[in-house]
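ok trying this again, last paste got cut off
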Amino acid sequence: MPPTAVARTSALRLTLASPLYRGATVALFLSGLGFSAAAPQIASFLVNNLGASLTQAGLFYLTNLTAPVAGYLVGARSDRTGARLGLLRACAVAGFAGWVGIAFSIHLWMPYVISAVVLGFAGAATSQLFALLHDELKAHPDPGNDGVVAIVRMALTGGWVVGPVAGSFLAAQTSLRAMLVATAVCTLVQLVPLAGFRTPPAAITKESVAQGPGLRAMLPLLAFTALYVLVYAGEPVKYAYLPLYMNGERGFPSGLSGAIIGIQPLVELAIMPVVVVVARRVAMMKLMVVGAAFGVAANICFATTGTAAGLFAGQILMGGVWGIFAALGIIVAQRLLPTAVATASAIFLSSTALASALGGAAAGIAADSIGLPLVFVVPAAFGLLAVIGLSVMARSPAHRGSIS
């Protein structure tokens, strides 16, 4: 049997054999399903149900900027107390309450306040789950452990593939408010697969005596996260402007546009297991450099080709970007701050809010001056900076041991 097949089977067996690994896989699929169902519909809800202007609806996404702060607070407490499972449950309940509150909002200000204050903490549930997963993997070392992380992460990606279609269908068949209630239910139901798991007392004792990491210890993680932000900043640009470019300026049929958008997550899911196998032979940070370079190439395709084939090529390259970063990003982040994995997970996973704000703001300014499709030069430039920064980290002797 080929080596790749052996690695995949081993990781799959490990996942199926553990109640936590199985539960985490299902929980993250439900989490991704619920959030991605609401994400494309929230602007329509604000405009159609609460009378927001397009500008006001766009500003809603700035409420996500509280997520990194909330994530850090939750992660730091988790590392001090070891109460990962309890905090995960609290965050999931907060998410349920937040989405129900938005669904039944009657004033325009209500979703903004709820999202900034409540949903910021709800997003920390995912980082707590990855920290819990890290503890269990560390207690049961196995060569296939990185593959387990990839499988669990693939479940989150799978939820993001299904969610937008499911959310659009549910909203069309019922209402936007009903769809938001369904998102709340998914956020809460993610706790069900984890109902039988209990945190080992020894793990709690060990973590409870750990001291919070100092700024110097966090610098490698913060540098890596900042470079990840530069890579991720292209995503809001792509989702905002690529459909406008395809449907408006190029006049592509809706089926062709949908196929171009939909190819990325399929490529991502397909290559994630392969990435884990390759990472056993090539240092993880070197693969991150390759992934960031794929992002630069993808945005150049968007900016210069102007053909369906060129845009397909760009999206396939983007699938490579996120196949690499989705499979390995959380692993690298935790290894860069091994004494506080919940804090590391929270900082890394919540950084997408900063990336969305950076990419959206920069592209919004550039779009007025250089237009479509040259606006994609902006994320290409961000990605080039990330390639340089990740290359420096990959060559640093201080990081080679933790990210090999």
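PB: full thing came through this time. The longest helix spans residues 341-370.
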